[in-house]
Amino acid sequence: MRYCINCCIHLLPNDLHRQCFRCRGPDHNNQKCPVCRGENKIPLYTDSKQMKWLAVLEVRTDHCESWNGFFCLRKGKLCSLMFGLIIMTLVMVSYILTGAKHGLLLIPSPFHYGAFASNPSLMDNESLSDMKDYYQPSKMNISYVKDYPSIKLIIDTITSKIEFITRQRPDLEELRKQEPHMFSVIPNKFLPNSKNPCWYEEYRGNTTTDPYATNSYALYSKRFRIIFDYLRKVFWNHLYHYKDKHYRLRCLPHFYIIGQPKCGTTDLYDRLRLHPDVRFSAIKEPHWWTRKRFGIIRLRDGFHDRYPVEDYLDLFDLAAHQIQSVLQSDAVKEHGKRSNIIIGEASASTMWDNNAWIFFYDNSTEGEPPFLIQDFIHAFQPNAKLIIMLRDPVERLYSDYLYFASANKSAEDFHEKVAESLQLFEGCVLDFSLRACVYNNTLNNAMPVRLQVGLYVVYLLDWLTVFNKDQILVLRLEDHASNMRYTMHMVFQFLDLGPLSEKQEALITKSPASNTRRPEDRSLGPMLPTTKAILRDFYRPFNTKLAQVLFDDAFLWKRT
């Protein structure tokens, strides 16, 4: 290892060291320079190589390379310091956000999610005492408990604006003007020898014509194509031939399971399917009355071509074929008997979803829809029967959230979404009627959770403006779960279904429950007790009115 004696710069083996001012002056001579010739220098060996002792005694730090090393060292320390500060800042921000959300901070955070001022003097003592019976506040819920009084003010405002005003039923001629094609397809009278509403329609196609070629259900959904492939194969076998013309039997449902979502409609549907006299549409939930006839597949995807009523009627062809077989049997022809087979349809949106009206009906009154789904169903089927399955609206909303939320599901997230939805609903009822807000498409799409679906009495009263009370059967999921045999007997009696054998009844009542909560959702646990108290306050006036209409205090859901 070689070093320059004057500046103590480490030299590489091939380095001539021409940059040193002391070693390379203007008149420098390597032969005459005692430094370069190595005279009077004491050799020192480092790393087993010769080194000049004077190099150790005359160490210099003013060379450019030594300064470069110094600055590199300082830059390195500065970068490390800045990087450390950034990491520390990110950790602190994460702590603040997480701590604020879960109530872990010792001081209030400006990032607190529930932007409601805390005022203990406004606390509802009765509701809080109910909470204390089954809940001990924990660190995870402190911030949400503080939200309660301010959200209670919002609920009080909503409650003060509640008015159950009877809507005006539209005239039949007004309905005809809105849906002329529908009225041209569906007759006003049905076959007398069929319990189900059916009629014969002339078929003008030939043997090479595909009767389902333009059916929108088959075109837009692959899972329905198998059903329609089968219908194509058997279609010609079920045509009725009379005076050189072909007729096909068309049918509408005899009864509708109209709601509500997450209230056990799927379980009721699955059990009713097992009855020998009951048939359903080819798919459980066509959503034709509420969405497909307006061209809505998913509202967020915009509008598609409107599904004509013929596409809807195609869904009942399988059942119509069976009814036709009974109608053509000797028992019916010779003895005057009739077909007792009935068809059902189970779209859980039928009771409440009128969101599309704003895009098609212009002559609204103060933001309220001039026409509702039930107006059209009643126009064609004044004797239709309607089944409604309800549950505690508080639990229904949480189940709805767990089922439809896609990510980041938690009791805390649900609480925040409830608070935001209540604020939006309050803003609407301050300016519009209750009915206008319930059927407000913009509001319903803006609310993070579907609060409006649990306002059962608002929808029920609107259905009662067109249908008689004895045409509507209202059940509770809680009763269905605790005594399934009793509720199914109520349904059989309501639909005038024939008696069953013990084996058939056992098959229907003892089947496992359908569409229960998914295991991953059950692991999230119940909603926060504060959220439950808030929702109970919100739904209480609506449940009270519902119990009055139905003359049944069970619909108060005081203890579920």
Automatic annotation (TrEMBL):
The chain crosses the membrane at residues 78-97. It is an enzyme of class 2 (transferase). SUPFAM superfamilies: P-loop containing nucleoside triphosphate hydrolases. It comes from the Eukaryota. Keywords: Membrane, Transferase, Transmembrane, Transmembrane helix. Residues 253-517 form the Sulfotransferase domain. GO terms for biological process: hexose biosynthetic process. Pfam families: Sulfotransfer_1 (PF00685). InterPro entries: CS_Sulfotransferase, P-loop_NTPase, Sulfotransferase_dom. Gene3D superfamilies: P-loop containing nucleotide triphosphate hydrolases. One of its GO terms (molecular function) is N-acetylgalactosamine 4-sulfate 6-O-sulfotransferase activity. Its EC number is 2.8.2.-. Belongs to the sulfotransferase 1 family. PANTHER family: CARBOHYDRATE SULFOTRANSFERASE 15. This is Sulfotransferase. It comes from Loxia curvirostra (Red crossbill). The gene is Chst15.
